């Protein structure tokens, strides 16, 4: 299918996964075009840089006559999108983005899938970055528009393919098939297992079952440093895995963690089961225990691929993170403005704790935008607890998903604020937010815009406010 298709059309091309896929296909020599809404997306720069044209809207008449293949996701009506329906009417091949990714991965000699409910974008970006530094010329597709000034998707050859493997459903509520079940990787690096996506999974047990099916008879490196993940580890049968290693246990253990001037240092001790007894120190430009754990998982993966400890140490040391993951937006006077994609209580906790490590004497201020009504409703107490780790949190209205029927939910961001009124303030508009920030912000806070919606766009209003404070 991929080899025959020359003119490929992507419906919803501005989405991060779609934009990265478009970049890969273009570098593979395909003619790529797509459609999306007129709203500005974080991937605009990536698409423009690659001269990939985007049509505005989804009119069936705008589907080019020479199209060989149409790729679509669950967004923009999914299989009911007018352009998808038009393609089927013309007998043009159509395929979901998740299914196509599985087909694409077959083109490579070694595929490494990076999965996990939290941290997989940073881990997959680091793995792709390290392979590039090691001279392996990998192709890759991660869940960010860029990292370390590199694009979130690239094609350099057919030896290695690093792919961020998403556990979300293909097209909820109609098709709940986990996206990563279409992948058949040679190696799996899993950062953790947790209950997320209540619109797809019933509970933690259901989530664990889905991950275990993905792991079956595959080479697995698993970062087991929390309760749900360790619980999953205990249910594994080692006979079902060709290569198996997990952190904080007999196979590999992290120790001597230190905060240094530009990140962290740690020691990794690896048992003979994986690669002979090994003890080595590493430094990274990232902070927080979760980033260290995920980095150790990347190190284990690279060792399994045959790279030496010394070369791995040098390859990872300058990685500074992916876009929208603890991303430094601006420093104005003594005030720092960061942006982070954290949208689950555990991700929020991890980001705030990492900020405490990096800025132990500063006040942490979070501007949080909940993402999806189903997730907000399922984790109200957990959100209140995690957001309460900041000195002050301003919580915005919920950013909905087009897949949800908003009328079927009776939940508001204010429900979270009520559980922790001393730390969390509900603001129902950007104007009200700016009024609160004007009175609260002094000149030395660490501020985060946080969430999976469009909260990152607030930088356009926050930066002028900070400049007026510093003047």
Major sheet attributes: 7 strands, mixed
* Apparent shape: globular
CATH architecture descriptor text of the largest domain = 3-Layer(aba) Sandwich
What is the typical, i.e. mean, pLDDT?
91
Query: Using only CA atoms, what is the Rg?
Result: 22 Å
How far apart, in Å, are the first and last alpha carbons? Answer: 59 Å
Level of helix content? Answer: 25-40%
According to CATH, what is the class of the largest domain? Alpha Beta
Total tally of structural domains: 3
**Number of DSSP-assigned strands:** 23
CATH topology assignment of the largest domain: UDP-N-acetylmuramoyl-L-alanine:D-glutamate ligase
The strands making up the biggest β-sheet line up spatially as 8-7-9-6-12-13-14
Enzyme class: ligase
InterPro entries: Mur-like_cat_sf (IPR036565), Mur_ligase_C (IPR004101), Mur_ligase_C_dom_sf (IPR036615), Mur_ligase_cen (IPR013221), Mur_ligase_N (IPR000713), MurCDEF_pg_biosynth (IPR050061), UDP-N-AcMur_Ala_ligase_MurC (IPR005758)
GO molecular function, one term: ATP binding
Catalytic activity: UDP-N-acetyl-alpha-D-muramate + L-alanine + ATP = UDP-N-acetyl-alpha-D-muramoyl-L-alanine + ADP + phosphate + H(+)
Fill in the keyword field for this structure:
seven-stranded mixed sheet; 471 residues; Mur_ligase_C; Rossmann fold; alpha/beta; cell shape; nucleotide-binding; globular; UDP-N-acetylmuramate-L-alanine ligase activity; single chain; Protein-Tyrosine Phosphatase, Chain A; UDP-N-acetylmuramate--L-alanine ligase
